[in-house]
Specification:
Order of helices and strands: HEEHEHEHEEEHEHH
CATH architecture: 3-Layer(bba) Sandwich
Helix content: 25-40%
Low-confidence stretches: 6-26, 62-73
CATH topology: Chalcone isomerase
Largest sheet: 5 strands, antiparallel
CATH superfamily: Cytochrome P460
Number of strands: 8
Distance between the termini: 69 Å
């Protein structure tokens, strides 16, 4: 009888440990396969939408900043960039107003801009068309990038449309030009909150 109780206690312990581990892997922080980020599936329904832009072009560049920084970056210049943040990342930013917490993630969900649809009822305007891919920004102190003065805990990943359509798709961090640009131009903690009303409103007390 005692032996059965001990075995039951061990089984319960391992079941709890497994459940906790599974929950940790399914939270909205980053998960990796080696040094590659696993694409965060489900962000459209469980993360916070912070804003959208179309046709942004940075000064001194003939293409969009994203395309200029990465030859394989997804999306044409006039693509919709729909931006989402993890719930924990947003809550932490609301609390500090000066920095995003560790393990914060952003997804820039990219769609081509279309102005024609099957029923031809549109007189003007554009809407999200074909999925073009996604960009993911991650703040993770356990996965720093670079070295010396260029060392950063922000990493940037590029996923093509074909990649994110596959469960468990992974991407390696982009080159350091992304981190350098965000560090120089991001209004708060490497993030361009100036483009996203939800974040800008939260940062106003410290950025004005």
């Amino acid at each position: 009888m005692l032996r059965n109780r001990i075995l039951s206690a061990f089984a319960l312990f391992f079941a709890i440990a497994f459940t906790q581990s599974a929950l940790a892997q399914t939270r909205d922080g980053p998960n990796y396969s080696g040094d590659k980020l696993i694409f965060p599936d489900g962000f459209r329904t469980s993360w916070l939408f912070v804003g959208s832009n179309i046709g942004l072009q940075y000064k001194g560049e003939g293409r969009t900043g994203i395309a200029a920084a990465h030859a394989n970056a997804p999306g044409p210049q006039n693509a919709f960039h729909n931006v989402y943040i993890t719930q924990d990342g947003y809550a932490g930013f609301l609390a500090s107003k000066t920095a995003f917490p560790d393990r914060t993630m952003f997804v820039v969900d990219i769609y081509s801009a279309k102005n024609k649809e099957p029923h031809n009822i549109l007189a003007k305007g554009s809407f999200d068309g074909d999925q073009e891919g996604a960009l993911v920004a991650v703040k993770d102190s356990t996965h720093p990038q670079g070295s010396g003065p260029d060392k950063t805990i922000w990493s940037y990943y590029v996923f093509g449309a074909a990649d994110i359509a596959k469960p468990g798709a992974t991407a390696a961090p982009a080159d350091s030009s992304c981190a350098a640009c965000h560090k120089k131009n991001g209004l708060v903690d490497n993030v361009w909150v100036q483009f996203y009303p939800v974040l800008l409103d939260a940062a106003k007390p410290t950025t004005k």
